[in-house]
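User: tokens in, sequence out, please.
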């Protein structure tokens, strides 16, 4: 496994697979991708699942269909602020990311697993969000 200093991961050199996964994760936060079916579809693995901050389990089809209606899905919606990315290469072609988001004052810690498909593209395989209660210190 390759892991990096948790204090300032964006400022440190990273494995190229980690960098690519972060770029693709950030693309999923942009309104233009969230609103575009094909643009979003190409970022999700066919076997994608998510456990959302609400506890809801999402399938690939459910997420792709709902993405335009979720936070960050319109140019006029509140943007998603994502920061403190940390990446680990778990195995060749498998990257685990953790990071934090703020959306309309709600804070969540997030975990994503990206894997390369047969064509060599990273696709989001698994995602989980955990709400952070107000006043919780960032470790």
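Assistant: Sequence out:
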């Amino acid at each position: 496994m390759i892991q990096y200093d948790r204090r300032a991961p964006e400022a440190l050199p990273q494995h190229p697979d980690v960098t690519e996964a972060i770029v693709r994760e950030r693309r999923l936060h942009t309104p233009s991708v969230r609103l575009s079916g094909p643009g979003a579809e190409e970022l999700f693995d066919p076997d994608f699942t998510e456990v959302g901050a609400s506890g809801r389990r999402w399938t690939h089809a459910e997420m792709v269909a709902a993405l335009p209606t979720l936070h960050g899905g319109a140019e006029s919606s509140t943007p998603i602020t994502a920061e403190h990315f940390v990446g680990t290469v778990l195995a060749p072609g498998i990257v685990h990311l953790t990071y934090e988001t703020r959306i309309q004052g709600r804070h969540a810690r997030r975990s994503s697993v990206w894997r390369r498909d047969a064509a060599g593209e990273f696709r989001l395989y698994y995602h989980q969000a955990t709400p952070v209660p107000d006043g919780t210190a960032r470790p």
